[in-house]
């Protein structure tokens, strides 16, 4: 329950930050791994050895994807923002690693996904 509460808090904070801009309050939503992979394709098995994908996001306005990751080797977090190119698969346009907490990584991801 705390996980959903924290997620809702950060989504709410991002929505408030962008409410004066072009995006509506409901533009960014969490999605599950199956939805993420339906849009982006399955994650390569090699990547799963070091990184665990722990949360997934979709921006309804831009069509961008976001993924929050946990580094299994040192238990810190990172994220990637992926953007679809015309006729091409999604590709990373922003990525960060070595963020000490999951909440901080989520906050940064949502800021860049907005």
Q: What characteristics describe this protein?
A:
36% helix; disordered N terminus; globular; 114 residues; alpha+beta
Number of helices: 4
Which residue ranges are poorly predicted, with pLDDT under 50 across at least 5 consecutive positions?
1-21
Please report the total strand number as a whole number.
5
Helix content: 25-40%
Q: What is the general shape?
A: globular
For the record, give the distance between the C-alpha atoms at the N and C termini, rounded to a whole number.
25 Å
Hey, roughly how much beta strand do the residues contain? 25-35%
Strand order of the largest sheet: 1-2-3-4-5
Topology order in helix (H) and strand (E) letters = HEHHEEEEH
* Helix/sheet category: alpha+beta
Major pleated sheet: 5 strands, antiparallel
Radius of gyration of CA atoms, rounded to a whole number: 14 Å
Give the integer mean of the pLDDT values.
81
Identify the quaternary structure here: single chain
Short recap of the structure:
Helix content is 36%, strand content 33%.
SSE blueprint and pairings:
Elements: H1 2-18, E1 28-31, H2 33-40, H3 47-50, E2 51-59, E3 65-71, E4 77-84, E5 90-99, H4 102-113
Antiparallel strand pairs: 1-2, 2-3, 3-4, 4-5
Helix pairs in contact: 1-4
């Amino acid at each position: 329950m705390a996980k959903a509460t924290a997620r809702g808090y950060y989504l709410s904070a991002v929505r408030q930050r962008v409410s004066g801009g072009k995006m509506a309050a409901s533009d960014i939503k969490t999605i599950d791994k199956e939805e993420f992979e339906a849009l982006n394709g399955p994650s390569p098995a090699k990547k799963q050895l070091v990184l665990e994908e722990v949360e997934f996001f979709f921006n309804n306005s831009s069509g961008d994807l976001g993924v929050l990751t946990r580094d299994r080797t040192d238990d810190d977090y990172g994220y990637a923002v992926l953007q679809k190119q015309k006729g091409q698969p999604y590709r990373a346009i922003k990525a960060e690693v070595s963020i000490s907490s999951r909440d901080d990584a989520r906050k940064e991801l949502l800021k860049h996904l907005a």
